[in-house]
Amino acid sequence: MQICRNENDPELIIRIQRGDHAAFGVLVQRHTDRFFRFAWRMLGNESDAEDVVQDAFVKFWENPHTWDAGKNVQFTTWFTRIIHNRCIDFLRRKKPITGTDVLDFRATDETAADDTIDKKEVQIVLEAGIHNLPERQKSALTLCFYEGLSNKEAASVMGIGVKALESLIMRAKKALRIHFEDNNLIEDTSYDKAS
Amino acid sequence: MTKHHDHKVDKILESRAHPDTPPQLVQRIIDRTGQMKQQNIPTWKAFLTALSDEFCNIFVLPRPEVAIAAMLILGVATGVSFDFVSWSDDYLMASIFDELNYGVYL
């Protein structure tokens, strides 16, 4: 069976639905990076992200007819929804994160006490902030900010309205701002106002 | 993107790093699914599909549907030909027997 790597996703999926494993290989090679990044951003853990992406692709291979070309939904948007739902299930099953799982930057910040926060420290604060966001806020932020989905697409992936999505993003950014201020990544505006 | 921009927060969010995709992940998915059978596809359908794909490749036909139609036409034509041959054979044999019988009677 001949496989053309230039075939678009719907063409490949039609082949996959006929049991063409080579076409499935092309689809996996094409999109694994993107879905791995998304899963990692949702879970914050490399090995969990690998498991989620692998399981999602395996399930898709077993039941390729679950994607319906007639519904006019892009494969990537449809599969992002699957990965998203799997990540949410994964996060709910997992034990709650304890204080020791996320590095507490505030403690080291006191000893550093200067403005020279290097990139690694910024990453630690950032990851902790995103990690501690409520599940829906994290999803909304990841889909819109990192995956570049439009508000409509992201809302569709999460199964909510666009207004609700915008509200989630606004609250996520508000929470992150407070977290960044607490960790001296940005100026504490409330302190400025008080003084 | 949402219209709620907070440039300072956005700038920090943009700096978020992510790990590279593990190089073995793609191969692991392909290897694992390689041995697995798909559901929802009857064996006869998979066989017919494989056959039509091969037919497409051999006769440079654009689509599997065309291949299936061509195979059906060929099949029917072959069947009709066989029937005709067998019918004509039967007719021939019957004629020969008739001749023989006629000869016996004589």
Secondary-structure blueprint:
The complex is a heterodimer of chains A (195) and B (106).
Chain A: H1 9-17, H2 21-43, H3 46-62, H4 75-93, H5 105-112, H6 119-131, H7 135-146, H8 151-158, H9 162-182, H10 189-194
Helix pairs in contact in A: 1-2, 2-3, 2-4, 3-4, 4-8, 6-9, 7-8, 7-9, 8-9
Chain B: H1 7-14, H2 23-34, H3 43-59, H4 64-105
Explain this structure to me?
The complex is a heterodimer of chains A (195) and B (106). Chain A has 195 residues and is mostly helical. Chain A folds into two domains: 7-96, Orthogonal Bundle (Rna Polymerase Sigma Factor, Chain: A), CATH 1.10.1740.10; 99-187, Winged helix-like DNA-binding domain superfamily/Winged helix DNA-binding domain (Arc Repressor Mutant, subunit A, Orthogonal Bundle), CATH 1.10.10. In chain A, 70% of the residues lie in helices and 0% in strands. Chain A has helices at 9-17, 21-43, 46-62, 75-93, 105-112, 119-131, 135-146, 151-158, 162-182, 189-194. In chain A, helix 2 runs antiparallel to helix 3 and helix 8 packs across helix 9 (162-182). The longest helix of chain A is centred in the first third of the chain and has 23 residues, at 21-43. Chain B is an all-alpha fold. In chain B, 75% of the residues lie in helices and 0% in strands. Chain B is built from four helices and no strands. Chain B has helices spanning 7-14, 23-34, 43-59, 64-105. Chain B is rod-shaped. The relative contact order of chain B is 0.04. Classes of the chains: A mainly alpha (195), B mainly alpha (106). The A-B interface holds A 1-2, 17-19, 21, 24-25, 28-29, 32-33, 36-37, 40-41, 46, 50, 53-54, 57-58, 61-65, 119, 122-123, 126-127, 130, 141, 144-146, 151, 165-166, 169-170, 173, 176-177, 180, 185-186 and B 1-4, 6, 8-10, 12-13, 15-19, 21-22, 25-26, 28-30, 32-34, 36, 38-41, 46, 49-50, 53, 57, 64.
